[in-house]
Design goal:
Radius of gyration: 19 Å
Pathway: Isoprenoid biosynthesis; isopentenyl diphosphate biosynthesis via mevalonate pathway; isopentenyl diphosphate from (R)-mevalonate: step 1/3
Shape: globular
Cofactor: Mg(2+)
CATH class of the largest domain: Alpha Beta
EC number: 2.7.1.36
Helix content: 40-55%
Strand content: 15-25%
Main location: cytoplasm
Subunit structure: Homodimer.
Bound molecules: adenosine-5'-diphosphate, (3R)-3-hydroxy-3-methyl-5-(phosphonooxy)pentanoic acid, magnesium ion
């Protein structure tokens, strides 16, 4: 019998990148989910079918004996796409003490891939949960979050925060500062997302910020300023002060741009959203291309984004109360 789990993507209200260096961040889970179906197979092989909105559906099959993917899409693309899934399956094998378990894995996701909405975290969280349950082990969402964090850290060359994975596992709005991870009471904020249709590599962008931080004190100061801003933002979130949240999002976008992780398309979408009346707008996630998030109370920003050439798709994103769940 196959076992299926799903987990949500997220937007960052504030704090991405700085959270990697121990500053606080507030990501919010959104109602776009990745669904992972897992069925144990008795030959020890791993077969993965991934259908995604921005990558043609593909299937990879390989076993411990050869390790060679059998597919007809470019190897680099496959390797990039498989890193997270492979490591998620390995984590579940470890949790169940079944190092040789083989699986058929099928992934479906309505989270654009590599666009800052946490598709990697959602796939890993749902994958660890489903594969562990398929092997008879029920993990608490907090445990799934911690295992998924270890996976992201390993795949992103040792650089990741707990923010995306904790948010995806727990749902709702969360606050992450180092290893201190908490869920927050938050109102359903009027998020609208603008997506430029491109993707980024989170590991590369995080490495770029690290290099800048090592070279320039101003980059260290910028990371600390993002932390200060997040602490101010927490008060505004508690009070449901959308105007102040928007102002702080605008500043956060400027600080992220100073760290070199914005892009022309992201800046164009941010300005379109502001011109359309958003309370504030910023890139979300690693940046470099992908998505922006804006606070849009009256649909003006969503309309402005949908009319902006840089924006391929604009959509509303409701807060997802539920994190990882069995389907
Ligand atoms: N539907 C999917 N099927 C298989 N792998 C996926 C899917 N969605 C995301 N991934 C994995 O997540 C990676 C993208 O993660 P990342 O660069 O962190 O961007 P983000 O988390 O912002 O979407 C992909 O290269 C792939 O390994
Ligand atoms: C840049 C970072 O703060 C968030 C990355 O988010 P995403 O993978 O682009 O959705 C990295 C991290 O927290 O691990
Ligand atoms: Mg990611």
């Amino acid at each position: 019998m196959p076992t299926t789990s799903s987990a949500p993507g997220k937007v960052y209200l504030f704090g991405e990148h700085a959270v990697v260096y121990g500053e606080p961040a507030v990501p919010c889970a959104i109602e776009r989910r990745a669904t992972v179906r897992v069925e144990e197979r008795d030959d020890g092989r791993l077969r993965v079918s991934a259908a995604d909105l921005s990558l043609d559906g593909f299937t990879v099959e390989y076993g411990a004996d050869d390790g060679v993917p059998n597919v007809d899409v470019p190897t680099a693309l496959v390797e990039a796409a498989m890193g997270y899934v492979d490591a998620a399956v390995a984590s579940a094998r470890d949790a169940a003490d079944r190092p040789d378990a083989g699986f058929d894995v099928t992934i479906e996701s309505d989270i654009p891939l590599g666009a800052g909405l946490g598709s990697s975290a959602a796939v890993v969280v749902a994958g660890v949960d489903a594969a562990a349950r398929e092997l008879g082990v029920e993990l608490a969402p907090e445990t799934v979050a911690e295992r998924a964090y270890e996976v992201e850290k390993a795949v992103q060359s040792g650089e990741a925060s707990r923010a995306d994975t904790f948010c995806s596992a727990m749902g709702g709005a969360v606050r992450v500062e180092g290893s201190d991870c908490r869920t927050l009471d938050a109102p359903d904020l009027p998020f609208v997302v603008g997506y430029d249709g491109t993707s980024h590599d989170t590991g590369d962008l995080v490495a770029g910020v690290r290099a800048l931080r090592e070279q320039y004190d101003f980059a260290r100061d910028t990371v600390e300023s993002i932390g200060d801003l997040v602490r101010r933002g927490e008060d505004a979130l508690r009070e449901g002060d959308v105007e102040e949240l928007g102002r702080l999002m605008d500043v956060d976008h400027g600080l992220l741009a100073a760290l070199g992780v914005s892009a022309r398309s992201l800046d164009e979408m941010v300005w379109a959203a502001r011109d359309g009346g958003a309370a504030g707008a910023k890139l979300t996630g690693a940046g470099g291309g992908g998505c922006i998030v804006a606070l849009d109370r009256d649909d003006g920003a969503e309309t402005a984004l949908s009319l902006t050439p840089a924006c391929e798709e604009a959509f509303r994103a409701r807060l997802a109360d539920e994190g990882v769940r069995a389907e």
